[in-house]
């Protein structure tokens, strides 16, 4: 074995010896430290309680470990008390907030129930009006609604029902029933719409609008027996006189048709006669000017002339007549005229 190897082995043994000696010294010191700590915690203490009176002095013995343990337990108990007390206060505040929210919710529910009741009253009126309208139009309501109200949501059965669930569930059931009824009401309303659409031409063919465009008119002479403004004798006035206190206001065709006469008469002055369907004619007299020609087709509401003071007239006005065949009828029966103007 060479000298280098011997020196290396000697160095290794010396290092191992030093490490072993150092570890043993460290272990010894650690042991002595824990022994000292144990002795400190195991130190005996005497606690004496001396009352102010002549009572017997109270004393008891303990050690440091037990005293520290008691202090830690006391601190833990107090900390737990304050922690859970704070949690309790927070929980009470949350409960109070929930109570207030519950009160607000109940108030909203009461308001909802009131609105629900108002909705039902409106639905009743709607049902009555719809039934009357359908009867006038000759549309038969679905009979099985009254026979199977539970499945179809017939409103009459809905209003007479008293054995449904109480409370908020009752409102939910009522709303569902009402929704079902309204869905069933859509079909007859659609039928009304279709009927009105098919009858739209009929409405435009009947003299049903005011012949004067200016809304500030007044009826200067009604249809029927009147005193003639010139000779003072009673006579039958065969039309309505519309006055706007001035010439030049537009005169409208009260229904769609064909212009058959555009001319002048000593009595009527400038006048127009329009032929409509269903054997009806309308006459517009005392005009200032014409806006249509003979043979022209006009639409309801179209301007055909202007108010004037031609012919036998005491002032600017429109004399308007409605004829059915050879009969002269009161135009007020076909248009909504306010005689108080």
From TrEMBL:
InterPro entries: Cell_wall_metabolism_enzyme, Dup_hybrid_motif, M23ase_b-sheet_dom
One Pfam family, short name: Peptidase_M23
Lineage: Bacteria, Pseudomonadati, Spirochaetota, Spirochaetia, Spirochaetales
Entry keyword Isomerase: no
Residue intervals of the M23ase beta-sheet core domain: 236-331
Coiled coil regions, renumbered to chain: 95-129
Name of the molecule in the record: Peptidase family M23
TM ranges: 64-84
Single Gene Ontology MF annotation: metalloendopeptidase activity
Swiss-Prot/TrEMBL keywords: Coiled coil, Membrane, Transmembrane, Transmembrane helix
Keyword Signal attached: no
Species of the source: Treponema bryantii
